[in-house]
Amino acid sequence: MTPLLQVRGLKKTFGGIQALDGVDLQIASGEIKALIGPNGAGKTTLFNCLTGMTRPSEGQIFLDGATPLKGLLPHQITKLGLARTFQNIRLFDSLTVIENVMVGAHCRFKANFLDAFFHTRRHLAEEKEIKEKAYYFLEVMGLLQQALNSAKNLAYADQRRLEIARALASEPRLLLLDEPAAGMNAAETAELDQLIVRLKEEFSLSFLLIEHDMKLVMKISDSVIVMDRGRSIAGGSPEEIRKNPAVITAYLGAEGGHA
């Protein structure tokens, strides 16, 4: 079966620093794949390359085995079905919760500038549809009662959820989550892992997630890729990764026996 996303020999150099050094990666439809590794391993750089925020120095990225993503702009990649969240939350603080989600849906707009300027029927109909969808995604994420609040006033865990809701509004096929459990307590993390599995099933989503919480990784991932110094050093099922000596040395350390 053709993978949903395929990465071949991806490299990225910043000056004299090799941030990515020939990374290969495949994600199947419906798969939850975790990307782990120490700080500075190149994980977020890989996310940036996949989503068009950084142009790779070498290598290829294909969607559905045929559509090249390298060289496309972020909004073009989003429209093709890749959405992401960020390690450092990037919400529009001056907007309400519902408005933040509506921003995520604008890549699906068919109305043009003139439609928006003259408030044509097409524009008004799309705005109504987008708002209805935004309310739906807020309900899915448990944020419906916060819809009219300012995004900056949300609790930290709810801001994380809002980022995911905004990403869902773009109607992705593959959702990239950059440390979604960062800063959450144990109860919030437990709710998050249940939510990711639910989203996978409800929306037929695939996931690639960067995460340092090894309990979450081992619980929900179908497969795991381990990076170190810009390279993928191991890949396999969570159980295979847990027992891999190279992984334990490079990253898991004492956690390897307790994850």
Helix content class: 25-40%
Please provide the count of β strands: 10
Reading side by side through the largest sheet, how are the strands ordered?
6-7-8-3-9-10
What number of structural domains do the residues give? Answer: 2
The CATH class of the largest domain: Alpha Beta
End-to-end span in angstroms? 31 Å
Query: Which H/E pattern describes the elements?
Result: EEEHEEHEHHHHEHEHEEHH
Structure in words:
With 259 residues, the protein is of the alpha/beta class. It folds into two domains: 1-81 and 172-259, Rossmann fold; 92-171, no CATH class. The chain is 39% helix and 23% strand. It has ten helices and ten strands. It has helices at 43-50, 74-80, 97-105, 113-118, 121-140, 156-168, 186-203, 214-220, 238-243, 245-252, and strands at residues 5-14, 17-27, 32-36, 58-63, 67-68, 82-84, 174-178, 206-210, 223-228, 231-236. The strands form two sheets. A six-stranded mixed β-sheet has the order 6-7-8-3-9-10, sandwiched between helices. The longest helix is centred in the middle third of the chain and has 20 residues, at 121-140. The protein is globular, with a radius of gyration of 19 Å. Mean pLDDT is 91; it is low at 254-259.
The gist of it:
This protein is an alpha/beta fold and 259 residues long. It contains ten helices and ten strands.
SSE order and pairing:
Blueprint: E1 5-14, E2 17-27, E3 32-36, H1 43-50, E4 58-63, E5 67-68, H2 74-80, E6 82-84, H3 97-105, H4 113-118, H5 121-140, H6 156-168, E7 174-178, H7 186-203, E8 206-210, H8 214-220, E9 223-228, E10 231-236, H9 238-243, H10 245-252
Parallel strand pairs: 3-8, 3-9, 6-7, 7-8
Antiparallel strand pairs: 1-2, 1-4, 4-5, 9-10
Helix pairs in contact: 3-5, 3-6, 5-6
